[in-house]
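Example record

The entry below shows one chain as it appears in the dataset: sequence first, then structure tokens.
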Amino acid sequence: MTDMSADEFYQLAIYISFGLSILAFLLTILRLVLGPTLPDRILSLDLLVTLGIGFIVIFTLATGYYAYLDMAIALGLVGFLATIAFARFVMHQGETNDPLIDDGLEQVDKD
């Protein structure tokens, strides 16, 4: 059995992390396409944002260039806001508060 140095183990862990991250991306995209309901698709989009942040962190650890972490933080903030917006959309789906739209719907002739 060969002894693995700390640097070799670190590189192996980075490669395994990249591989598992790509596998998670593919499975999440599959859920996005096949998701039977809108909340399933929204959840998979949120997971894609989270996996993107993880991928950026792994890339940062692999390259040692830590300026990418700012991009991961910004992606996390935008992803959080998008998830909140989608959740509000699903919660209020089918509701209208605009009286003009409601009046227009009532005046449609049903043949």
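Notes for this example: The chain has one domain: 6-106. The chain is about 80% helix and 0% strand.
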